[in-house]
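Protocol step 6 of 9: fold each sequence in the batch and record its structure tokens directly after the sequence line. For illustration, a two-sequence batch is reproduced in full.

Sequence one:
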Amino acid sequence: MSPRILLLGGVTEALAIARQLGPEHVYSLAGVGRVPQDLPCQVRVGGYGGAPGLAAYLRAEGISLLIDATHPYAAHISRNAVLAAKQVGIPCWALRRKAWEAQPGDDWREVADWDELMQALAPFKRPLFTLGREPLQHLDEIPLQQFWTLRALETCPGNERCEIIGARGPFRLDDERALFARRQIDVLISKNSGSSATEPKLDVARERGVPVLILKRPTLPEADRTFWSTQALLEALR
């Protein structure tokens, strides 16, 4: 009997895997962003209630292989996946993205958390945030000398010192150049997601001599098997 798979999504590569899964398998999404409607597998949206809730779902649905293809910064979900799989006694595979690495001409400055980021951001005036939704919680803390540009998956209300752009990758190099020039960006704030779809912003920062404040990657748990490419994982499934 072939295993019944639960695929925890979150990165673009997960969708490519989901398109190869049959109707007995489940693709699970947290619910942020668009939910695909054209997949051959089942789609589940929403959380599980931590590792115990995920373990209960694995048992109830007869899942025999768990695949963690969540975002590199979704460490809490990745830990729950490993714990739940161990509780149920099934393997947990992980698809991991390799981190970006600084190139000649880059000015990267790694920060550990929001407080450290705000300290490093103090000298700048026109930052571009590409951290997702987290900065939305801090719109009332924007220093008087700064104007923030935030890019997130969905457009949200900003304020007199912040404009929010709703946009999804992949992003084109020329469009990123135009954004940096139009908004007079003097510092870029980014996670080290490792995604080729969002990498052009780093190219533009390098071209313009703009510093990049990089949020440090969290430490992820060790899965039973780790894959660094979609193709390698799909070959293992076959």
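Sequence two, same batch, same settings:
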Amino acid sequence: MQTVLLDFNTRAQEVNEYFLFLEGLITEKTKLAIVLGDDGVQKVTFIDPGLAKTLKANGFLLLYNLVESTMRNAIEAIFDELSSNKVSFNSIRNEIKKVVLYNFKNRSPNNIHSKITDISIDIITAGFNRKELFSGNVDRDEITKTARKYGFSHDTDYSKTKHGENLNDIMRKRNDLAHGNKSFAEVGRDTSIGDLLQIKEEVIEYLKQILQNIDDYLVKKEYLA
């Protein structure tokens, strides 16, 4: 989990820096300098309103990227823990047994037989593929479902996280952009920079608390039956 937390903190810092820069542009605390001609003369100007909408929409992409990458890394950490501790299939909780069997039945024997030495242990990770964990579908409901699937807590401090309720809107906006259903200007048009900053703070805090829940789950070995 230390690697997961480090990656999360790095990505969250990247998001924070982007939003700080965007806030400066929109509130005109940060100005743009345009070079005119070959003589190097600069003209100081403010951000174009249309570009501001595009940059706000891009903020939703950054937030979604943080959400999905964080959850993918966290679930992989659970399987890494099971593997490193050589936990057997018989000793894990029923919820995870279902996940393992589902993963395993979707694999060709030709692709996994070489990974298995002790089937009671190796079956847990033999069918795991991190690329199949999520695919543009991570919102609060998906995280709650995942928590119940593995047995870790999805409870957070509502006053700081709104229990991740903003993730639903972030996912929808991300998918609208990814599939071309809406333009960047359309997506960024109706969200103020103040609201966007508030959403960002709540999402980062929500993910931080979910990661803490997963870390507690691993430390206490709550993956065991």
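Proceed to step 7 once all outputs are recorded. Observation for sequence two: The CA atoms of residues 86 and 216 lie 19 Å apart.
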